[in-house]
Amino acid sequence: MAPVMSNRNRNRYRARIRDDEYADTATSAGGGPVGTYLLHRVKPHLPPWLGVAGTGLAGVLGHARWADSAAAGVGLTLASVALTGTTWWVGRSTGAQRRLHSAITVASGSAWLTAACLAGPTTSPVGDVFLMGGPVLALTWNVRLVIGRTTDPTGEGSDKGLLAKVGLARAQLGATKVEPNRVTAPVLLEPGEQTNDDVTKALARLASALDLPKNAVRYTPDPSSERRGELVIVPEDMLSQVVEWEGPSNLGGSITDPLDLGRYDDGAPLLIWLPGDPDAGRNSTHLLIAGGTGSGKGDTALNLLTEILSRRDVIVWFSDPKAFQDFAPLRPGLDWGVEGGTDTEVLIEAVKAAIPERTRWLGAHGYRQWLPQCAQPQTDAEHSCRADGRACGCAGMPFLVAWMEEAANTLRALGDDVFTGIAQEARSAGISLVVSLQRPSYDQMSTSTRASLPSVIALGCDPRDEGFSLPESVIDAGAHPGAWGNRRPGYCYIVSPGIAEDRYPSPGRTRRFTTRAIAVMELLATWAQRNGATADPITARAAANVAGRAYTGRTTTNPTTNPTPNTHTGSTGSGPSDGGVDFAEEDEMGPEPHHDPDDAGIDPEADLAAPEPGDDAPIFGTPPGRRPSPEEARRLFTDALAQFESEGRMIVGPKDFMDWCDEHQLSRSWVSLRLKEAALDGRLEPTNTTGRWRILPALTAA
Q1: Mean pLDDT within 143-159
Q2: Angle between helices 126-151 and 46-66 (to 10 degrees)
Q3: Residue 606 — left, alpha, or beta (φ > 0 → left; ψ -120 to 50 → alpha)?
Q4: Higher model confidence: residue 29 or residue 275?
Q5: By the 8 A CB rule, do 139 and 86 touch?
Q6: What's the CA gap between 628 and 262, in Å, rounded?
Q7: Which of 15, 189, 251, 587 has the highest count of CB atoms within 10 angstroms of its CB?
């Protein structure tokens, strides 16, 4: 295939052919080739000089006719103004430089002609101005012609020609800022005829003209003007090369420092913030991670979670219905990890209970929002909760991240508004909610919850789902995650406080996690156990009041012993893989007895109890024969609630009593009535899910 010739080279080639053809024709006609060639090259430069000569001749003739006419002076002046204005108006479709040059030339020439007609072309200083100014004006056009041929045969800038191709002929580009792999140019549109929407609609054609992918050309409108904006062109996709994760970016730093997830397509770091910063004018935020199957959502979540766990002043409560398939190496570093179902329901209720307690603590210590010093002991009298103004010395309160992985499962089980209260209230309590799911459509997540998630990491998706992840303005500016689908794992757009708005439509890519990363993640979890924050007494008490023994906080690991829970709370669910049995403790208890411990209080010599109704029922084929009395049934129900509490199952409903009902010959409707009575007695509390109740720990209820 022949190489493609640029427009500039093509025009130069055609001009050279015309020159050669003209020289050949002149030579064959008998003329000298040198003289003919020089005449041909000079001809384009003659019009300005002919214009100067014609103006001088007109001045001589005009002076002979109108030297003593006052009316002629007025007429020539008006004609000069009209001619200059017409030149400026006609030149509106050309470049700004050409338009100004033309108007100055016409104004100068017409002004001299008026003076020459009235005062005489040879009088001083009219004649001197002609002899000096005329050649200068002619030469400026000659210079313009020479430079125009060298740079652009059409006489227009290359940017002007490019905009004309895409339907923006009258738009103007300002001073272009060239950075490594990024070109930024301000755009000024024709007033009254073009708007920012015209540029947005032309982005695909502009990308085609530059032979670039659509998402390599972006436009950011100026919020204060409908005809101004900024055009960004990224000529090379720097994201095509996979970068593997090798470790956190800021081990031991604060959660207020930026979290580094990867890089943008121009090589800049891909940063995000969760807590707010009043000095920077940045609000705290909740985060949505959205992407289709195969889009790299798991690796993106790992990038974010490893960055969070590497910080010294944050704890993480994590729900993963997939049983920590991707996050198992990091699980020991979590303050609380659950695997979905009722455990997730308990965790959500614990977050709701912690919000008012944490908000009350922040207000009592003089904080309008969570700051890094909140995580430290309160030794500053300015942040004291004491009435006398002395330093209170209260324990610090770390930032809390409540992470809902594969949230679609939770939304299906608990309702589409299960996160609404958290999303609307948690930011003021130093809590960030992270919700990860494939398709954040409005039939899965309530509009109130979606509106309360101001930040989003949008990975590849179905083109029809772009509007569920990104704001319309960002899509109009050139962001299109639907163009990737699952073909470019890790490619994403990030919209979040702290990121410049012109970065919103810029694609980035997160780092990839391979099997080589597992050992590093395990080391990070160990570091978090030993050096990371633990839950403060306020948050721990709120969680324990809801979850009972289901919450224990982050475990600590000793190289010579099995993991043991912190004393301030309970279990993360990250204990021994054998279901929680501590074999060392079992050995200390001695050999297993040869009789059933339940039979220890039976006297083998005592008489058997008298038979009761139903005791003679067959063992197999029928349910137990004796139905408990009403008083006994209520006692059994109370014992069942205590049993659920001891097991850490703090959210219950009639379905949790199905086996119990079969065992005691009681109906689910009877259980529903007892649950309502227990709620009136203060033993239970209704949740946001109909038919589900939260057990209040016995001491709390009392």
Answers
A1: 57
A2: 160
A3: beta
A4: 275
A5: no
A6: 64
A7: 189
User: In 3-state terms, what secondary structure has residue 650?
Assistant: coil
Look at the alpha carbons of 344, 345, 348, 350 in this order and tell me if their dihedral is positive or negative: negative
Q: For each of the domains in the chain, give its residue range(s) and CATH number, in order of start.
A: 7-151 (no CATH), 158-233 (3.30.1360), 259-527 (3.40.50.300), 628-702 (1.10.10.10)
What count of other Cβ atoms lies within 10 Å of the Cβ of residue 374?
Answer: 22
Residue among 150, 152, 157, 146 nearest 44 (CA):
146
State residue 489 phi and psi, 5-degree precision. -60, 135
Say if residue 13's pLDDT is above 80. no
DSSP 118: H
- Closest among 196, 261, 206, 195 to 234, alpha carbons compared: 206
533-539-541 Cα angle (round to 5): 120
**Cβ pair 555, 566 in contact under 8 A:** yes
Asked if residue 158 has pLDDT above 80, the reply is: no
- 407 near 318, Cβ under 8 Å? no
Q: Are 337 and 573 in contact (CB under 8 A)?
A: yes
User: Mutual orientation of helices 96-119 and 126-151 as an angle, nearest 10°?
Assistant: 160
Where do we find the tokens 């050999």?
A: 591
- Token pair of 302, please? 């790992």
Kind plus residue range of the DSSP H or E element containing 521: helix 517-531
Q: Are 546 and 532 in contact (CB under 8 A)?
A: no
Average pLDDT over the chain reads 81
pTM above 0.85, yes or no: no
pLDDT (average), residues 76-91: 85
**Rounded distance between C-alpha atoms, residue 417 and residue 422, angstroms:** 10
